[in-house]
């Protein structure tokens, strides 16, 4: 299970009426901290918790604080300040040197489960959703907001607001055995993975169990596929010149934030010529050779380099340039 909120809420939904629950949210940090504002954790009265608000060092005390919420039915603020030697956080032996401010809220039918059920429905539709946590001690529900009203995470005197994103959607075109570790690593990150290969010989199910969907559609048919057209990232790895060229032709104007082609640059140049397109035609650029240069040539190492690059692009840490490879960023495959 990943710690992505969508996965946490899915687990919570099945148990929400069997226990008392508290939602713990990171609303502010200063200095060093493992999690950042917006991180959430769900805690129940059996001592279970889904998610993390730290690297594991605060959770036991957060659970202790949650009991106070159940006792009086009130939301409350908890601050762990590792910058001050006299703060209780020093007794926990954390030593990261930062401050973490949490807001703990009881979850119940009386406050409409803090709108978490409705939030999950939106995320499961693959749509982002604005969410306002009300910083009021007496029982009150949180609020769903239009994403257009929130430019970024925002903390005020009476609320914390953020836009929560659904699972990233990764499409893998080509179901060779080297796709299996890519699927597994992406699934561990909480991504929704789709894999397609029209070849009958590549229709086996073994090893692809963690894919959300596995299909054998003709490549040209994907142009009309609703889920394909809203992919966040696409990796082409058929190991077949004609099929890879056809896929690249389909992806030239795709809106995915990341498109990557497995194989060396000279092979990709041949693919572009077969498809009668140029590297500069790609709307968001084309990663080739795909993957960060992390070293190693095992399928698992190559998969790690691919997933790491996609993660960095989706999080805005690096960008793919349309017509050239950035000199400071070499890729592995």
Figure out the total of helices.
9
Q: How much strand?
A: 15-25%
How are the strands ordered across the major sheet?
A: 3-2-1-5-4
Report the mean per-residue pLDDT as an integer: 92
Helix content: 25-40%
Question: What is the count of structural domains?
Answer: 2
Q: N- to C-terminal separation?
A: 29 Å
- Rg over C-alpha atoms, rounded to the nearest angstrom: 23 Å
Which residues form runs of ≥5 with pLDDT under 50? Answer: 322-332
Overall 3D geometry? elongated
Helix-strand string:
HEEEHEHEHEEEEEHEEHEHEHH
Biggest sheet architecture: 5 strands, antiparallel
**Count of extended strands:** 14
**Helix/strand class:** alpha/beta
Give a brief rundown of this model:
This protein is α/β, with parallel strands linked by helices and about 325 residues long. Helix content is about 25%, strand content about 20%.
Descriptive keywords:
333 residues; alpha/beta; Rossmann fold; 2 domains; five-stranded antiparallel beta sheet; 14 strands; 21% strand; elongated; XdhC_CoxI; Xanthine and CO dehydrogenase family maturation factor XdhC/CoxF family protein; MoCofactor_Util/Proc; XdhC_Rossmann_dom
Q: Can you walk me through this structure?
A:
It comes from Paraferrimonas sedimenticola. It holds the Pfam family XdhC_C. This is Xanthine and CO dehydrogenase family maturation factor XdhC/CoxF family protein. Residues 170-310 form the XdhC Rossmann domain. InterPro entries: MoCofactor_Util/Proc, XdhC_CoxI, XdhC_Rossmann_dom. This protein is of the alpha/beta class and 333 residues long. The chain folds into 2 domains: 5-164, no CATH class; 169-314, NAD(P)-binding Rossmann-like Domain (Rossmann fold), CATH 3.40.50. Helix content is 27%, strand content 21%. It has 9 helices and 14 strands. It has helices at 5-15, 59-72, 88-91, 116-124, 179-188, 226-229, 241-251, 265-275, 299-314, and strands at residues 21-30, 40-44, 49-51, 76-81, 99-107, 129-134, 143-145, 154-155, 159-164, 169-173, 192-196, 213-215, 233-236, 258-261. A 5-stranded antiparallel β-sheet has the order 3-2-1-5-4, sandwiched between helices. The protein has a 5-stranded parallel β-sheet with strand order 12-11-10-13-14, sandwiched between helices. Helix 1 packs across helix 4, helix 5 (179-188) crosses helix 9 (299-314) and helix 7 (241-251) packs across helix 8 (265-275). The longest helix has 16 residues, at 299-314. The protein is elongated, with a radius of gyration of 23 Å. Mean pLDDT is 92; it is low at 322-332.
């Amino acid at each position: 299970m990943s710690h992505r909120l969508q996965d946490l809420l899915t687990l919570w939904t099945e148990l929400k009426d069997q226990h008392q629950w508290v939602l713990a949210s990171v609303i502010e940090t200063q200095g060093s901290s493992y999690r950042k504002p917006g991180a959430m954790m769900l805690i129940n009265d059996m001592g279970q918790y889904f998610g993390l608000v730290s690297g594991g060092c605060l959770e036991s005390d957060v659970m202790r604080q949650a009991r106070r919420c159940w006792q009086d039915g009130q939301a409350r603020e908890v601050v762990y300040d590792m910058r001050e030697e006299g703060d209780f956080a020093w007794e926990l032996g954390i030593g990261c040197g930062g401050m973490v401010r949490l807001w703990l809220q009881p979850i119940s039918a009386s406050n409409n489960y803090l709108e978490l059920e409705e939030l999950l429905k939106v995320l499961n539709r693959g749509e982002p959703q604005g969410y306002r946590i009300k910083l009021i001690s007496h029982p009150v529900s949180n609020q769903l907001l239009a994403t257009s009203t929130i430019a970024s995470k925002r903390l005020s005197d009476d609320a914390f607001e953020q836009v929560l994103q659904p699972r990233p959607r990764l499409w893998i075109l080509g179901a060779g055995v080297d796709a299996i570790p890519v699927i597994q690593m992406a699934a561990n990150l909480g991504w929704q993975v789709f894999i397609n290969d029209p070849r009958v010989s590549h229709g086996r199910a073994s090893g692809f169990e963690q894919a959300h969907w596995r299909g054998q559609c003709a490549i040209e048919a994907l142009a009309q596929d609703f889920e394909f057209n809203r992919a966040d990232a696409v990796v082409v790895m058929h190991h077949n010149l004609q099929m890879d060229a056809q896929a690249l032709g389909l992806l030239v104007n795709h809106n995915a934030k990341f498109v990557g082609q497995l194989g060396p640059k000279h092979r990709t140049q041949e693919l572009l010529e077969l498809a009668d397109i140029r590297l500069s035609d790609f709307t968001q650029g084309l990663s080739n050779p795909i993957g960060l240069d992390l070293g190693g040539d095992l399928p698992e190492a190559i998969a790690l380099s691919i997933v790491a690059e996609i993660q960095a692009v989706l999080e805005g840490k690096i960008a793919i340039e349309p017509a050239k490879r950035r000199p400071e960023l070499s890729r592995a495959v």
